[in-house]
Amino acid sequence: MVNKPGSVNAEQLRSEQDAGNRRESFSSQNSQTAKEFIETQMQLEADAREVLPYSFDSCTQDLGPLRQSLFACLTCNPPPASPDAPYSAAGVCYSCSISCHGEHTLVELFTKRDFVCDCGTTRMPSSSPCTLRDDPKTGKKGVHSQEPHSGNKYNHNFQNKFCGCGEDYDPNKEKGTMFQCLGLGTVETGGCGEDWWHPECLIGLPRNWYEDVKKDMTENEKAEAEDEELPLPPGFPMEDDFETFICYKCIESTPWMKRYAGTAGFLPPVYKEDGLSKPTEDVETAPETWTANQEEQATNQKKRKVENDEQESEQASKRIKEDNENAIPETKAEPNEEPTQPELPKKKHESLPSSAPLGIFSIFLKEDFRDQFCRCPECYPNLAHHPQLREEEETYEPPVSEVGDEANGGGSTGTGSLLDRGEAALSNIDRVRAIEGAMVYNHLRDKVKEFLKPFAESGTAVSAEDIKSYFEKLRGDEQPMKDAAGQASMSNNDDDNDGGNGRREQSGY
C-alpha cells in the first residue's frame, strides 16, 4: 500500500558496484586468497538473492492475465517528447525485466491487475525480443512482434509519471510516502488506473507544502527534519487508520460509491480541496456538514432504537396484562386465523444515507470494508464489475530462486554458488591433477600478489591493459608475441586492409 515507485538503471548500478568492489579490492588489500574471493562472491550472491529473490527464467505471458509486478522499459519505450506525440506504452514482467531488459533503464511499477507481459510483442521494438519464450515458427528462444493482450490497461505510470500532478518520478529527490489507489476506474473511464499518489496532491496542497512549514522552524528543527521522513500533510488520514483508498478520479467514475463515505468500514470523505474537513463552497447547498450529518444520523438512529425498544416493551407488558385479565380458559383460537409473518431483515443499502456527500473527494477504506457492502440483487451488479471490492486480490509471485548452500537445502548445478561449482569441478578430477592444480594456483597467487602490491600501495586502479601485459610476461611470451604480431602484420596486409588485427589465440593457464 505504501511502497514507492522507483527508477532503476541496472547497467549503471552494476558498473558502479563493480568499480567500488575493484577499488576496495586493489586499494585496501595486497592480495586476496581464493577462499576470501569465494566468500566475497557468496556474500554478493546472497545480497543479490535478497534484492531479487525470485527465479527469472520464465515469462508470465503464457499464464494469461495476472495481478503481478510490472516494469516499464524507458530504453525500449521512451516517453514521447510531447503529450500529443504518438506513444505505445508497454509493461514487462519481473523475469523479463532482468533477463531481457537487464541492461536497460527500468521503472518499477509494482502491481497492476489483469495484465499480460508485453515483452516480445508489437508494443516493444523488434530489436528487443523476449529471450525467455520460444519462437513458434523456429522453436528457438527469442520471439518478437507477437500480438499483445488486448485487455491490458495503461496509464502515465508507464512513462515514469505518477500521481494526479503527473510529475516524473526521481528516486533521488522524492521524499515521503506515496499511496496506490485501489483503482476502480481506468483512464478510459475517467479513473486513475491504479496510480500512485502524493498525499498533498489528494487534498489540494502544493508539492512544496512542507517548505512553508519549515519557515517557522528553528535551525535545529530544520536539521532534524532533513533527516526524517516527510510527514503526512494536515487533513490527510493517519496511515494506521486505513487499509487502502480510492482516489477522487475513481470515485467520480463510480458515483454509487459515494454513499458509503463515512459509514462503517469507511472513513469520512477526504476532499480534494480541504482534506478531511468539509469544503466551504458546499456549505450553502448542504444545511450541515457531512460529518455532523453523519453523527446526527447515528445519534437519531440510536435514539429511535431506544425509544422503539421501550415502546415495544411497554406495549408487550400491557398486552400480557390485558390478556391475563380477559383470558377465558375454554376459548380457543379461530381455526381460520393466519399467523403473523416475521419481518424480513433490512438490506444494508437501506441503512446508508439517503444522499451522498457533495463535492469531489477520495474515500479511505478500513480493513473490513469489503464486509460492509450491500450484496442484494439491486446492489450486487455494482460489485460485479469490481472483484477487488468483493474479495482481497492475489498477486502472482514467481518461484523463489534455488539456493546452492547446504543451509538452504542445496541446489542443482548452474543454480548453486561459486563455491559449490568449484567443489563440484574438483570432485570430478583425479587426486594427482587436483594437487598439481593447487600447486599451480599457489604459484600464480604469489605472482599476482607481487604484481598488485605497487598498485595497492599507490592507490592506482588496475587497467585491462596492465593485466594483459602482466600475463604476457608471466607466461614468458612477451617477445614471441611481438615477433608473431610483426610477422602476421607483414604477411597479412590484405587482412589488415579488411579490418583484421593480426592477432592469434594463445593458450595459457
Automatic annotation (TrEMBL):
UniProt entry keywords in alphabetical sequence: Metal-binding, Zinc, Zinc-finger
Biased composition (Basic and acidic residues): 13-25, 315-324
GO molecular function list: ubiquitin protein ligase activity; zinc ion binding
Biased composition (Polar residues): 288-300
Zinc finger (UBR-type): 57-135
One Gene Ontology term, aspect cellular component: cytoplasm
Top-level taxonomic group: Eukaryota
Residues of the UBR-type domain: 57-135
InterPro entries named among the record's database cross-references: UBR7, UBR7-like_UBR-box, Znf_UBR
Keyword Zinc applies: yes
Entry keyword annotation includes Metal-binding: yes
Region (Disordered): 1-34, 127-152, 276-352, 391-419, 473-509
PANTHER family to which the protein is assigned, alphabetical: E3 UBIQUITIN-PROTEIN LIGASE UBR7 (PTHR13513), E3 UBIQUITIN-PROTEIN LIGASE UBR7-RELATED (PTHR13513:SF9)
Protein name: UBR-type domain-containing protein
